[in-house]
């Protein structure tokens, strides 16, 4: 997907942190939130079974990345499998199970979460 990035030198960034305590505090809060989210993702990948991991990824894509349901993604099935720490074949099989159980609907790049409470339960129970 088309993206724009702005790079700031480390020395400039350090100066901004030293001169603006409000920005420094907000930056530390953001870094802490990201560290907690990364710990939760690591915990999910190491402690949950495959359906729970895939439910995590679908909920994250819908609620945090695209902020939409349904959403259109440029991610391949391989990308989704990689995000959930499983093989492409396993991810496709579980997606089909979710589809057969009317938890999701897929059409090409469009994914719709039809039963969010059940996906959350699957995610929570791993």
Question: What keywords describe this structure?
Answer:
mainly alpha; 126 residues; Arc Repressor Mutant, subunit A
Describe this structure in words.
This protein is mostly helical and 126 residues long. 67% of the residues lie in helices and 8% in strands. The protein has 2 domains: 9-47; 49-126, Arc Repressor Mutant, subunit A, CATH 1.10.10.10. It has helices at 10-19, 21-47, 50-65, 77-84, 88-100, 116-125; strands at residues 71-72, 104-107, 110-113. A 3-stranded antiparallel beta sheet has the order 1-3-2. A hairpin with a 2-residue loop joins strand 2 and strand 3. The longest helix has 27 residues, at 21-47. The two termini are 31 Å apart. The model has no long low-confidence stretch (mean pLDDT 93).
Question: What's the topology here?
Answer:
Layout: H1 10-19, H2 21-47, H3 50-65, E1 71-72, H4 77-84, H5 88-100, E2 104-107, E3 110-113, H6 116-125
Antiparallel strand pairs: 1-3, 2-3
Helix pairs in contact: 3-4, 3-6, 4-5
